[in-house]
Amino acid sequence: MNSSEFRRRGKEMVDYVANYMDGIESRQVYPDVEPGYLRPLIPAAAPQEPDTFEDIIKDIEKIIMPGAASPACTELETVMMDWLGKMLELPEAFLAGDAGEGGGVIQGSASEATLVALLAARTKVTRRLQAASPELTPAAIMEKLVAYASDQAHSSVERAGLIGGVKLKAIPSDGNFAMRASALQEAMERDKAAGLIPFFVVATLGTTSCCSFDNLLEVGPLCNKEDVWLHIDAAYAGSAFICPEFRHLLNGVEFADSFNFNPHKWLLVNFDCSAMWVKKRTDLTGAFKLDPVYLKHSHQDSGLITDYRHWQLPLGRRFRSLKMWFVFRMYGVKGLQAYIRKHVQLSHEFESLVRQDPRFEICAQVILGLVCFRLKGSNKLNEALLQRINSAKKIHLVPCQLRDKFVLRFAICSRTVESAHVQLAWEHIRELAATVLSAERGQ
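Structure tokens predicted for Aromatic-L-amino-acid decarboxylase:
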């Protein structure tokens, strides 16, 4: 959609909302539709080719408005999460379908999803241990619980441990910045010998620092063997798994209890939209379900509806699945795949430019849209380069620390980025690098 069409469609939407408000008194205050009305009205999977904007707007009035905001808000979310799960080729156990035990929910962020998974895992292990040993108190169990994540995991994982009141231990990553089963098992055995209870592991697919991937095919079976909840955080990289050539990066997801990524990061859906799936929805509802009188409704115990307030921290929620529906239909699966592939191609173009300049080095394998690079030399030299780049305000780079190296990160993430932008950015970086190196020689 170009800017002129965007202006036209924006005005049409203002008219739609204004007409709705003008005619609101003619509409019922409560819908006639029954739970489950929506799924038969829309396809079982996302379209491969784009739909027209006109067709989507017609469907808003025909399909959504009869059940707005309930049950349409809930039911569209369930179906959109199944659409997205099928795009990723998630195992059937993660899909809601017509009668599945699992399913997806839209959280606000990956941080939220990790915390929800940790709290659900904490409740599950506490109840299991109390069932076996009724004399154990929740407090006695809590003080022994321990969670694990790679030393490359996002800081939000550590934060989830703090909020959840459990110990979190960082597992040393290997030479490719990945968590391996051997290091995890060693930590678990050591903790069990000390009387602690391993209960939760976060595996990261596409770390923030360098887009490394924990070894799911090793870590997954270990977690299953130890009866430990495995949560997968693929906040950034998950969008790429809709492309068959990148789907192997998700191999091992079948061992996980929960999986999460952010369509708002790399799948053209506006913030906030963090997609989370669980194999057993009762693991979440068992941890968060509370039913005061003022939240009860006539379908409370019918088994016909999904009550997402029991899947998340807040009780209130927005109609976030609507923007997923628009994006999936406006682009089609093929359009979204092309978008991902273009970004990956551009990151490799930048990598090639870096490798051609002997002053620079690549610091981690380039798999998706992130390139980690630096000047050969001291951390101080690279800090000076970054300071000049960001002070010039033509491009913006965010650094990371890989072991003892200060590293610059070049991330392809704009919807409108082209090869010309990559070339201009590289020329800019090279010029500033020459200035920094010249200043160092002059000292």
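The mean pLDDT is 91.
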